[in-house]
Amino acid sequence: MSQPDPKNVSLFVTCVVDQFFPEVGESTIRVLRRHGVDVEFNSDQTCCGQPAFNSGYWKEARPLAERFLDMYEGVEYVVMPSGSCASMVRVFYKELFHDDPTLLERAAEVGSHVFELSEFLVDVLGVNDASESEQSGTPSRVTYHEACHLRRELGATTQARKLINGTPGVDLNEMEQSEVCCGFGGTFAVKYADISGAMLDEKITHIRASGADAVVACDITCLMHIGGGLEKQDIPVRPMHLAEMLDKGAV
User: Fold this and answer.
1) In Å, how far are 77, 180, 185 from 5, measured between CA atoms?
2) pTM for this structure?
3) What domains lie within the chain, and their CATH numbers?
């Protein structure tokens, strides 16, 4: 049986990127193409079902998840600029479809072809640096926030760092407790606003102490939350998705 061709990829752009941060999707495509990948984008894609699933509405999440399986069954590779959406498909579809052996089997098969962007670049393509990125020529200091699902569900703790360290003109200044949640957690930030705000303040304290010009992460929802806190406190640190950093080469 022939192995899938890593040069053929379908981009699942995620809801938040599509609706609020399309530049992240555009950067993702440019980065993949620079590494010789033929990127397909299915314009009929919709939500993977994660918001409903995480809020306890499993019945409402199932049709979205089944639609995802219908759309991407047989696709060689599905790449997402989001560890949380990739986790939904690879990890939580198994819980969502636990009572249906047929859907469970389909979910396992489709999930085996789903990768978060940094995982795909490092683990599948074997990329160790971003030397082909468009460099701004301005040396930049960045710090890295580890998104929860990327670290805890996918176990991807080294890939993004490897890419950051391999980007010309970019220095990685590690913050303390980079692995600690920023406090977003989807509806958690709404239901438990005080706790979420306290977690965010602690994260911002560590970002400031790192001396970085930008904070990089692999999930735009974390960056949306962190960016709001930085702006509210008038702190001149830019929130930046990994795809954008790899695309531009420096902050």
Assistant:
1) 8, 36, 34
2) 0.94
3) 8-122 (3.40.50), 129-248 (3.40.50.11810)
